[in-house]
Amino acid sequence: MKSGIYCLFYGLLTLLMFFTAACTSKKDTSQPRTMLVGTDAAYAPFESEGPNKELKGFDIEILTAIAAKEGIPIKFINTPWEGLFTQLVNGDRDILISAITINEARKQQMDFSSPYFEAVQLIVVPMKSKVQKMEDLKGLKVGVQTGTTGDDVVSALLGKTNANIKRFEGTPLAIKELENGGVDAVVADNGVINNFIANNKVSFKIVSDKSFSKENYGIAVKKGNVELLGKINKGLEAIKADGTYQRIYNGYFEGKK
């Protein structure tokens, strides 16, 4: 009888272990996959690296808040701008957030979220410069970040292959060249320009031009990924509604952080 009880006990224990293992296994496979996020961390205040290579910035906080709302596991990966879009198209990245202006050419390659930030181009010149508008850049050496909308507007004015267009990996490098006298002006997004001028001891003036159109930044996903894009848009709407977006925005652009 005792032997029979032990057999029954161990039999039940074995069944319990089997079902526990089965449930554990099912739980593991149901976990959502971590989405790999590409961002070029050379565009403060939108994205940059901290002293320990950690990624920080407005874009990083915005997407982190969206992902938390929607339960999307994410991992940011510092990805150079030149290969950023290709990484998404090839499937090596699931999401891109990197102060990416939504335009028709890019919409042919990827799908964008609802706009999350409005930007405009600005011109940076030395204090004694006579430049007062975009047209005044003709005949001058102009620095831009390669492949950006700043590059686009200067190329449209001077010609894409004009030798006077000096292209750099990042806007800070272009401004450094302006400081060294290698270029006469730099054209880039207002957020980056204003942040650089505010945080560096440089003596430049900023020129705006009415011909510059307003631009909208979007979060990009691989073309056709409707489910992921829907979650991002839902999360973006939620953080705008509960005040999270405004709090983050104020911290970076209103000096209230």
Count every helix, treating DSSP H or I runs of 4 or more residues as helices. Answer: 9
Low-confidence stretches: 1-7
Please compute the radius of gyration using only Cα atoms.
Answer: 25 Å
Averaging pLDDT over every residue, what do you get?
89
List the strand order in the largest sheet: 5-1-6-15-7
The largest β sheet comes out as: 5 strands, mixed
Strand content: 15-25%
Distance between the termini: 74 Å
**Structural class, judged by helices and strands?**
alpha/beta
**Using DSSP, what is the number of strands?**
15
Structure description:
With 257 residues, the chain is of the alpha/beta class. 43% of the residues lie in helices and 21% in strands. The chain has a 5-stranded mixed beta sheet, with helices on both faces. A 5-stranded mixed beta sheet has the order 11-10-12-9-13, with helices on both faces. A 3-stranded antiparallel beta sheet has the order 2-3-4, with helices on one face. Helix 2 packs across helix 8 and helix 2 runs antiparallel to helix 9. The chain starts with a helix and ends with a helix.
What does this entry show, briefly?
The chain has 9 helices and 15 strands. It is α/β, with parallel strands linked by helices.
Question: Main attributes?
Answer:
disordered N terminus; signal; Solute-binding_3/MltF_N; alpha/beta; 257 residues; 5-stranded mixed beta sheet; Basic amino acid ABC transporter substrate-binding protein; single chain; Iontro_rcpt_C; 43% helix
